[in-house]
Amino acid sequence: MKALLLGGTGVFGKSAAALLSREKQVTEIALASRTLESAQRVASEIGDKAHAVCVDIKDLDRLSSIASDYDIIVNAAGPTSEIQVPAIQAAIEAGVHYCDLGIIGRTAEKALKLNEQAQARGVTAIIGTGWCAIRSLMAVHAAHQLDEIDELSACFQFDYSPGGFYSPDKSLARAHTQGHVETSWIDILECARSPVKTYRAGDWISIEPSEYPMEIVHPSGSMIIAYPSDALEAITLPPYLPGVNNISILMSLVPPQLNELYLQHAQRMANDETDPAEAMVAFFEAALADKERWLSSTPGYPGGWWMWASVTGQKNGRQARYLCWPAMVLNWTNVPLIIVALRIMRGEVSLHGVMPPEACFELGSFLEEAAKYVHEEHRGKPLLNERFDWLE
Questions:
Q1: Which pLDDT value is given to residue 283?
Q2: Lower CB count within 10 Å: N or C terminus of the chain?
Q3: Percentage of residues in the chain with pLDDT exceeding 90?
Q4: 86 prior amide bond cis, ω within 30
Q5: Mean pLDDT calculated for residue range 105-112
Q6: What is the mean pLDDT of residues 161-190?
Q7: What's the distance, CA 104 to chain centroid?
Q8: 162 and 285 share a domain?
Q9: How many domains does the chain have?
Q10: Which of 306, 132, 272, 83 is nearest to 193 (CA)?
Q11: Do residues 308 and 357 share a domain?
Q12: 78 versus 377: which is more confidently predicted?
């Protein structure tokens, strides 16, 4: 089958192309980019299955015309707020299936309004199929572990400690080299653009993230502070968790003091004082200008990249808490995207419309398929870590 890969020259697009090229089921991969030369260069690195296509995602007529020759659009491009809806519209117009890496709640609301159009065309469009997919599937799994739920939380911890690939110093250096800020950074900042929606007492309310810090338990057992985010799951999870009236989708940064700086620049963006790319550069520069304040480590604070889901409530008449998080070390952005794309291509998703991963998948089988992508030495090990605590 043939895949049209949007954002094929980006960090995530290159990785997605490499993963798709290994699958016998995939016979052709078109790497779409606004710059043909860049797409051709990446296509030569991927191999015979890949070729380059020049297209602007926002050019609906051209994109839908190109997409009609393929079986699925795999969208690894960004930023979500600019390209998710046009890409889905193109898929619907072309009558081809679709999946993406979108993470923004307010954009997901717009995308979901295309549901009836997608159904009418027999199109399956699954949004938020990167790490959001794992976090949402863990949230649904966690909700099933207790008899009654008081609070469900799903969190992602981003580690931007100095020296790491995504640290402010290296991210700023790449922005200068490439001439632009990576779109994944823009998406992360958009998640803090106020107001954000959170689900309280069975309904959505709008809040300012900085005004609602939440103390939550980390998988390490430590308590950390995290903040509500405008994440896709805040919009998509409640309909699939009837009876769960309080759902918090959270994020937190390491070093922890970076949260303050991050929220400051997100607020500037929300106030229209700057655009997302400028806000990100200003964030990097501010962090590097005062490393002692913003980038120094906090003794005893849990580092690393983590995502987990937790629930508190009743189990057998007692107050309890359950946490779960992936046991595997994987590229949690691209592996879920590829799994969803392959499941659609294999005809394993019968639903049509625009929907989130939790509408079609469950955690156990999803992690089993993800395990195929771990290094050989890690195979056969547990897929999910779990922690259960009695609270009384």
A1: 92
A2: C
A3: 83
A4: no
A5: 96
A6: 90
A7: 8
A8: yes
A9: 2
A10: 272
A11: no
A12: 78
At 44, the pLDDT band (50, 70, 90 cuts) reads very high
262: containing domain:
132-325
C-alpha dihedral, 333 to 247 to 367 to 382, nearest 10°: 110
Q: Map residue 192 onto helix, strand or coil.
A: coil
Give backbone dihedrals phi and psi of 299, rounded to 5 degrees, phi first: -55, 130
Joined tokens for residue 192:
């803090």
Residue type, 144: H
Hey, what are 148's tokens? 């009654």
Instruction: Answer yes or no: is 284 within a domain.
Output: yes
Q: Is the peptide bond before 79 cis (omega within 30 degrees of 0)?
A: yes
So what's the pLDDT on residue 392?
81
Positive or negative torsion for Cα 253, 259, 264, 267: positive
Kindly write down the DSSP assignment for every residue of 296-332, as one continuous string. Answer: ---TT---S-EEEEEEEEEETTEEEEEEEEE-S---T
Q: What's 190's domain CATH number? A: 3.30.360
pLDDT-based confidence at 218, cuts 50/70/90?
A: very high
CB 288 within 8 A of CB 169: yes
**In the numeric block, which tokens belong to residue 229?**
């985010």
Same domain, 227 and 83: no
Burial string for 243-269 (b: 16+ CB within 10 Å, else e) reads ebbbbbbbbbbbbbbbbebbbebbbeb
